[in-house]
Specification:
CATH topology: TIM Barrel
Shape: globular
Largest sheet: 8 strands, parallel
Number of helices: 8
CATH architecture: Alpha-Beta Barrel
CATH class: Alpha Beta
Structural class: alpha/beta
Helix content: 25-40%
CATH superfamily: Aldolase class I
Number of domains: 1
Strand order of the largest sheet: 1-8-7-6-5-4-3-2
């Protein structure tokens, strides 16, 4: 089943609890949390305390995306804070196999992320280790960017590898995702669609989620 993952990077942090409850009531089961360090990406977002706070108010799956230069040092703290799954960038992990297994050793699902300029082929040797792959469809660091269409080719390639039995990975996409490209992403093989501005940038985030859920179900051939 295709999931819409609201990204709290686009939420109003003064009303974060209320906004999380709103999308939860709309049927969301996962939240996406972008952690930025100001080094790997030119922005700083939030850290462990925000994850701890969210864990206290929701049972939703917390999908923590580490956009950081030294992710290995943060895996333990975020696991203890309540993360359910953590993804790390291929571009900053010289020992990617080890890093993915470190995440899994904490009892979490492990994901690997690739930037728009990174080819899918660099993941060939870890597709049997990772639980999911996150395809960036914008250059990471800021919300509200325009979707880069090349992500569709990467998703389709990953889905083809999955159908050929090379890996049971889930496929996630992040960046510029909204109602206009939801169907194309699902048809390409994407399972998890991260949406920030398209959800929390709307006056009613719950309605925005439901609209995208309906588009996704139709594209997947699921009765609505």
């Amino acid at each position: 089943m295709v999931e819409i993952l609201p990204s709290i990077l686009a939420a109003d942090f003064a009303r974060l609890g209320d906004q999380v409850r709103a999308v939860e009531q709309a049927g969301v089961t996962m939240l996406h949390l972008d952690v930025m360090d100001g080094h790997f990406v030119p922005n700083i977002s939030f850290g462990v305390p925000v994850v701890e706070s969210l864990r206290r108010v929701t049972k939703l799956t917390l999908d923590v995306h580490l956009m950081v230069t030294r992710p290995d040092e943060l895996i333990g703290p975020f696991a203890q804070a309540g993360a359910d799954q953590i993804s790390v960038h291929q571009e900053v992990c010289p020992h990617l196999d080890r890093t993915l297994r470190l995440i899994q050793s904490e009892g979490l699902k492990a994901g690997v992320v690739i930037n728009p300029s990174t080819p899918v082929t660099v993941l060939d040797e870890v597709l049997d280790v990772a639980d999911f792959v996150l395809v960036m469809s914008v250059n990471p660091g800021f919300g509200g960017q325009k979707f880069i269409p090349g992500a569709l080719r990467k998703i389709a390639r990953l889905d083809r590898a999955r159908r050929e039995g090379k890996s049971p990975i889930m496929i996630e996409v992040d960046g510029g995702v909204g109602p206009a490209n939801t169907a194309a992403l699902v048809e390409a093989g994407c399972d998890w669609l991260v949406a920030g501005s398209a959800v929390f940038g709307r006056e009613d985030p719950a309605t925005a989620v439901r609209e995208m859920q309906q588009i996704a179900r139709q594209a997947a051939g699921v009765p609505v």
